[in-house]
Amino acid sequence: MNQNVDNMKKCPSFERCSVNHCPLDCEMSKRYGSGNCKYMTEAKAAKIAGNNVVFGGKTMPDEMLKVVPESNISSLNTPSRKRLKDLISHSVKG
Fold first, then answer.
1. Hey, is 51 helix, strand or coil?
2. Do 70 and 84 touch, CB atoms closer than 8 A?
3. Which domain holds residue 74?
């Protein structure tokens, strides 16, 4: 199996995922089309049937953040980039 697929398999949603852009994909810059990972989508609020609903903005789990290729860090959503920055600062201090 190739290293790129091994990296993407670290996501628990890998087997059922169909998005074109995955932040764990070492070759993400070569991908075309629409469809971004939920960890690349900023939070958006909407009112549905009178209820406030938030879409996106999920923070990527630490185990996955540790394997995001450096070239893809800027594509992560704000909560995931913030968490990655926290992980890096704690590993430098510790």
1. strand
2. no
3. 3-93
CB neighbour list of residue 19: distance below 8 Å, 6 or more residues apart: 35, 36, 37
Integer Cα distance of 68 and 25 in angstroms: 8
Which residues, 6+ apart, have CB-to-CB distance to 67 below 8 Å? 7, 10, 24
* Matching residue, tokens 């590993």: 91
* Structural domain total, the chain: 1
Mean pLDDT of the chain: 93
Q: Quick: pLDDT tens for 2-45.
A: 889 999 999 999 999 999 999 999 999 999 998 999 999 999 99
**Taking the model in full, what pTM does it have?**
0.87
**1 pLDDT above the threshold of 70:** no
Q: Element (H or E) spanning 87, and its range?
A: helix 78-93
